Amino acid sequence: MADFAHESERQFAQLLDAYGIRWDYEPTTFVLEVDAKGNTAEAFTPDFYLCDFDTYVELTTLRQPLVTKKNRKVRRLLETHPDVTIKLLYRKDIERLEAKYRLADAA
Predict the structure, then answer these.
(1) Is residue 2 over pLDDT 90?
(2) Domains in the chain, ordered, with CATH?
(3) Can you say whether the dihedral through the CA atoms of 68, 69, 74, 76 is positive or negative?
(4) Interatomic CA distance for residues 46 and 25, integer angstroms
(5) Arithmetic mean of pLDDT over the chain
(6) pLDDT of residue 1
(7) Looking at residue 105, what is its pLDDT?
(8) SS in 3 state form for 22-37?
(9) pTM to 2 decimals?
């Protein structure tokens, strides 16, 4: 099992495993902006890649200012990499998943 940055990521991975959904944890870093010298000025690494769906998933359970920052990064990712599919799951989405699938009990 991967070393997750947040408990919600571990629980989400357990849900994916329970349903046989193949995933990778933080496999790709996307360059969002480069400086005048061509160096990476901003990048974004989504939390999960769902292999069979060719879709990235980013979880956010953070304070509102950080949620706003993640929303901006996801928008920027879609602008710079229009071929990428990404879903952003908010705290309320994760809480619904926890309640529906009893993720906390599965720990």
Answers:
(1) no
(2) 7-99 (3.40.960.10)
(3) positive
(4) 8
(5) 88
(6) 60
(7) 55
(8) CEEECCCCEEEEECCC
(9) 0.85
Q: Tokens in use for 3?
A: 């070393």
Instruction: Tell me whether strands 55-59 and 40-44 are parallel, antiparallel or unpaired.
Output: unpaired
> Could you please report the per-residue DSSP string of the chain?
----SSHHHHHHHHHHHHTT--EEES---EEEEE-TTS-EEEEE--SEEEGGGTEEEEE--S-HHHHHHHHHHHHHHHHH-TT--EEEE-HHHHHHHHHHHTHHHH-
Averaged pLDDT, 40-48? 96
**CA 28, CA 15: separation in Å to the nearest integer?**
21
Higher pLDDT, 66 or 9: 9
